[in-house]
């Protein structure tokens, strides 16, 4: 059915309007092809250049992500007042815009994860092997460290340290529980959007509407940052938090650092569970 106009029309219109949008996934007569679950381990990919190329793409993307976003955060921190800088909205746009651009650039090579929590969620959703997931996470963390390191080189050690180095910390007035909850919900929003934007059903059912997956993903990052920058500085990406914390390397960056790993991983796991139970739900068959 690929590439045929008549099948595109069929995929968009084969169900009458009384049926709620999306419930076609619960029928036996599917109008799309669901890719098979990824194996837990696949030794053959270790000898494939595409495997290592994907890791390099994740490294470069996370490097660029930290470079742009940490510079933006530091620009706001150095400004004498909020009106003299892009402010929180500008920081949110920097994070969301970079994710949009980098996912667009790397989706065809590595899938455009740029985030260990996204990788973890997709692994739980059977979208990639354990080997690839671990490899991606290592490359993402290395890229983040290098990106933050370059920013420190530009700004100088004194300035970088004085303005916090872009490291995530829990804001005054909020508890560790508040921060953990914000990271869980924020990461759930992101990973849920990733699953939805890359859902196989869209290639058929929504084929009459142009879908650009990086756009909703980047917009989700933007919105989560607007909501949670005042609480946690917004992590939702363990590599981003780790890279800034290592280069900044002050006690306050490490005091609550566990939150920026535990929260995103819990949020990603919940999003993966929701994807498996609801989005890819298998219809119940009663015995007659």
What characterizes the major β-sheet?
A: none
Radius of gyration: 21 Å
Mean pLDDT: 84
Can you count the beta strands? 0
Cα distance spanning the termini: 33 Å
Q: What is the subunit organization of this protein?
A: single chain
The sequence of SSEs as H and E is HHHHHHHHHHHH
The total count of helices amounts to 12
| Residues in helix, % | 55-70%
Structural class: mainly alpha
Sequence stretches where pLDDT stays below 50 over 5 or more residues? 1-28, 282-288
Describe the structure.
- It contains twelve helices and no strands.
- The chain has helices spanning 5-13, 49-78, 87-106, 116-124, 130-155, 157-162, 176-197, 202-205, 214-232, 238-248, 251-255, 259-279.
- The chain is globular.
- Residues 1-28 and 282-288 have low confidence and may be disordered.
How would you summarize the topology of this molecule?
Blueprint: H1 5-13, H2 49-78, H3 87-106, H4 116-124, H5 130-155, H6 157-162, H7 176-197, H8 202-205, H9 214-232, H10 238-248, H11 251-255, H12 259-279
Helix pairs in contact: 2-3, 2-5, 2-10, 3-9, 4-5, 4-7, 4-12, 5-10, 7-9, 7-12
């Amino acid at each position: 059915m690929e590439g045929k106009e008549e099948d595109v029309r069929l995929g968009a219109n084969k169900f009458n309007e009384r049926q709620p949008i999306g419930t076609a996934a619960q029928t036996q007569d599917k109008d799309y092809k669901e890719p098979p679950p990824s194996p837990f381990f696949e030794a053959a990919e270790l000898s494939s250049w595409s495997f290592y190329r994907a890791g390099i793409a994740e490294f470069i993307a996370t490097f660029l992500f930290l470079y742009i976003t940490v510079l933006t955060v530091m620009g706001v921190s150095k400004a004498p007042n909020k009106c003299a800088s892009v402010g929180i909205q500008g920081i949110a746009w920097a994070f969301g815009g970079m994710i949009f651009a980098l996912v667009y650039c790397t989706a065809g090579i590595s899938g455009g994860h740029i985030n260990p929590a996204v990788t973890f969620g997709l692994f739980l959703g059977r979208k990639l092997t354990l080997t690839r997931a671990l490899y991606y996470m290592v490359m993402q963390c290395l890229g983040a460290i290098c990106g933050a390191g370059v920013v420190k080189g530009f700004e100088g050690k004194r300035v970088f340290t004085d303005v916090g180095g872009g490291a995530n910390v829990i804001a005054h007035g909020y508890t560790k529980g508040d921060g953990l909850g914000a990271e869980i919900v924020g990461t759930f929003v992101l990973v849920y959007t990733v699953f939805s934007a890359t859902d196989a059903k869209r290639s058929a059912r929504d084929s009459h509407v142009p879908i650009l997956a990086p756009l909703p993903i980047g917009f989700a990052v933007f919105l989560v940052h607007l909501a949670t920058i005042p609480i946690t500085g917004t992590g939702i990406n363990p590599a981003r938090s780790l890279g800034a914390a290592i280069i900044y390397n002050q006690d306050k960056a490490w005091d609550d650092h566990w939150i920026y790993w535990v929260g995103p991983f819990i949020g990603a796991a919940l999003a993966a569970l929701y994807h498996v139970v609801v989005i890819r739900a298998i219809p119940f068959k009663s015995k007659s």
